[in-house]
Amino acid sequence: MEESLKENIYGALETVVDPELGVDIVNLGLVYDIEMDEEGKTIVTMTLTSMGCPLAGTIVEQIKIALDDIPEVKSTEVNIVWNPPWTKDKMSRIAKIALGIQ
């Protein structure tokens, strides 16, 4: 996948906000990988801040809606993984500032 397309996808994913924390999933460090095959099937590998996250379905739906606007993306699959586990260290400086974390 070319770099500009990957940047577009990450940009779209920055519009998906974790409803509990009020910060987008990219800056939270929840998105681990993005892959796309020749047919435009896009797989977003990500984690959640907690295993019992009641909003997982909402976040997955928001990801699909966000990537819908990118012409190259024909279908979206969200693969939620628990390894490696998410930690606050994965958050960007912006997310840490927004949440008041040192």
Automatic annotation (TrEMBL):
Domain of life: Bacteria
SUPFAM superfamilies, sorted: Fe-S cluster assembly (FSCA) domain-like
Xref: InterPro entries: Fe-S_Maturation_MIP18, FSCA_dom_sf, MIP18-like
Ranges where the MIP18 family-like domain occurs: 6-79
Pfam families reported for this sequence: FeS_assembly_P
PANTHER family linked to this entry: FE-S PROTEIN MATURATION AUXILIARY FACTOR YITW
Protein name as catalogued: Metal-sulfur cluster assembly factor
Protein source organism: Metabacillus endolithicus
